[in-house]
Amino acid sequence: MIKNENSDREANVLAQHICMSVFKARRVIDQIRGRSYEETLMILELMPYRASYPILKLVYSAAANASHNMGLNEADLFISKAEVNRGAIVKKLRPRARGRSYMIKKTTCHIKILLKEK
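Below the sequence we write its predicted C-alpha cells.
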C-alpha cells in the first residue's frame, strides 16, 4: 500500500474466507460504519447476531494495529470505512438415496475495516 506523506494515519484489517453470508455480515457492518471505537465495541457486544463476533475480533485487531504500529490513541479512533465483499463458494456433495448426490453450497465473505484518527 502506497501512502502520501500528507494522508491521514489509518489502520486497516482484512479477514478473508469468513464462513458467513454476505448479507448477514452487511447487516452488522451497516450499524457500525462511521461510529467511534468505544461505541462500536458496545454495539457489537450487545448485538444478538452470530456475525457480530468475527467483526468484533476484527475491530479489536485494527485498534491494536493502530496503537502498536502507529502509536495512535484508541479513544480517538473511529471506523472510517467498513465493507463486506463476496468470497469463494465452498461446494460439497452430500450423498442421497439411490446413489444420487445433493450439492451443498457454503458461502464465504471478505470483511475489511479501516480505522482513522479523529
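The first strand starts at residue 10 and ends at 18.
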